[in-house]
Amino acid sequence: MNQRVTPATALLLVLPPLLWAGNAVVGRLVTTLVPPMTLNFLRWALAFVILLPLAHRLLRPGSALWPHWKRFALLGLLGVGCYNALQYLALKTSTPLNVTLVASSVPIWMLAVGALCFGQRVSRRQITGAVLSIAGVLVVLSRGDWALLAQVQLVPGDLYVLLATLAWAFYSWLLSQPKEPAGIRNDWAAFLMAQIFFGLGWSGLFAAGEWAVTDAHISWGWPLAAALLYVAIGPAVIAYRCWGMGVQRVGPAIAGFFSNLTPLFAALLSAAFLGELPQLYHALAFLLIVGGIVVSSRR
Predict the structure, then answer these.
(1) C-alpha distances out from residue 117 to 121, 142, 169, 174, Å
(2) Up-side HSE of residue 142: CA atoms within 13 Å toward CB?
(3) How far apart are CA 134 and CA 244, in angstroms?
(4) pLDDT at 221
(5) What is the pTM of this model?
(6) Cα dihedral sign for 218, 223, 229, 232?
(7) Contact indicator for 150, 31 with CB cutoff of 8 Å
């Protein structure tokens, strides 16, 4: 991995937070139309159909996928089955402020998982960068008024966000450990399809449990169809493709700092939908988050 963040790599890692911010907005809009686990399953089922023409050979008997099924089953569990399902679930049981606040700890968990499970050394620059990045998120959440943060009360639903954050940290570190054939690794559609194939099994199992123990229902219509199309193409296929490439280039520790752009983008998107102009605190938050990225990526 090349630890230097080039403009091209920065673009790869900025695009996923922008798409994921839209995912959070859309996820909140459809909470009354579809249950969270079912939304996650439908999202990845549609992504599977989109990728099938590009990577259908991977699913044939005798392909290079099957000797490495355990690795892809784990990647599918963490990145497809758990991560977004837990976030969608959190949006039904917790406030957007709490969800974003807990998710802002991604850089810390990236560094902790790397140090404890993958033998990665944590530098002072990375710790300083994490502090700056989280400070930027807090500026967004508080809207420049720190008294708002004192009013935050954690609820049991916030545990779902924490579990999602941990799953994403492990997923990102596993991406940085190339243990699959080069034929799959170097074919982005095949690499993502391998994860989705097993991830659909996990997400389908979770969705089945949701329908078995709750009064789940789906309100079909154009709003839900449009939402599914967006979350399948943007936050799923495009964002995961870009994130995987970015992690391979600079590593998950540095890539994790870019994820804190998500709440900033979410705030800007929400403001745009409400017809409000960006505020001065948005600029301050952007400088702090980008400052954290720059400091952490310097040698």
Answers:
(1) 11, 34, 11, 10
(2) 17
(3) 23
(4) 94
(5) 0.82
(6) negative
(7) no
